[in-house]
């Protein structure tokens, strides 16, 4: 198995098609005719087995505010593995790659939204519950800013030395 990092603007239309098929197979209830749900990520990790795309993880690089603190984060987006390749550690290997890159680049936290927490907890993520502000985006339309208390969906992984305060979070952009 091989995992490569691809900057978004270097992804070809053919590769976008492969990512779209994988993402839609993994998330059929959120199927879209594109390689992303809400917004293009900044870069992606792609897992290949014998030249076949079997895993995908989008990553957004941004700053967020948590109370009075400002953190740099990598937001993990659309992590998925083909059903024929599940339970082989591919998702954990991609999470290890993004964690390693985050450490090298001085990122404070990894941040993600998930319904199923088991994989992420196994990889060092902690669940948080907080008031969250984000830009509501759906099908290329902006519906304004949302502010809600979010329970049992937000997860963080500390990378740097900064502590996560128990304060409201403003994503300063869309929800991954």
Written account of the structure:
Residues 6-148 form the N-acetyltransferase domain. The chain is α+β, with helices and mostly antiparallel strands. The chain has one domain: Aminopeptidase (3-Layer(aba) Sandwich), CATH 3.40.630.30. The chain has helices spanning 13-26, 90-104, 118-122, and strands at residues 2-7, 43-49, 52-66, 69-81, 109-113, 126-138, 141-158, 169-174. Strand 4 (69-81), helix 2 and strand 5 (109-113) form a beta-alpha-beta unit. The chain is globular, with a radius of gyration of 16 Å. The two termini are 27 Å apart.
Summary of the model, kept short:
The protein is α+β, with helices and mostly antiparallel strands and 176 residues long.
Tell me the β content. over 45%
Might you state the CATH topology name? Aminopeptidase
Shape: globular
- What is the CATH homology-level superfamily? Gcn5-related N-acetyltransferase (GNAT)
Query: How many domains would you count in the coordinates?
Result: 1
């Amino acid at each position: 198995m091989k995992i490569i990092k691809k900057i978004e603007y270097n992804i070809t239309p053919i590769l976008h098609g492969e990512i779209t098929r994988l993402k839609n197979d993994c998330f059929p209830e959120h199927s879209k005719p594109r390689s992303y749900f809400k917004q293009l990520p900044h870069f992606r990790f792609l897992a290949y087995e014998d030249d076949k795309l079997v895993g995908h993880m989008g990553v957004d690089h941004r700053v967020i505010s948590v109370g009075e603190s400002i953190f740099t984060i990598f937001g993990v987006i659309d992590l998925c593995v083909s059903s024929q390749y599940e339970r082989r550690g591919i998702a954990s290997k991609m999470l290890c790659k993004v964690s390693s890159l985050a450490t090298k680049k001085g990122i404070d936290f990894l941040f993600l939204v998930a319904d199923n927490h088991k994989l992420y907890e196994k990889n060092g993520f902690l669940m948080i519950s907080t008031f969250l502000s984000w830009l509501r985006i759906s099908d290329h339309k902006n519906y304004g800013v949302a502010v809600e208390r979010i329970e049992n969906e937000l997860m963080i992984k500390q990378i740097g030395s900064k502590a996560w305060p128990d304060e409201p979070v403003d994503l300063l952009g869309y929800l991954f």
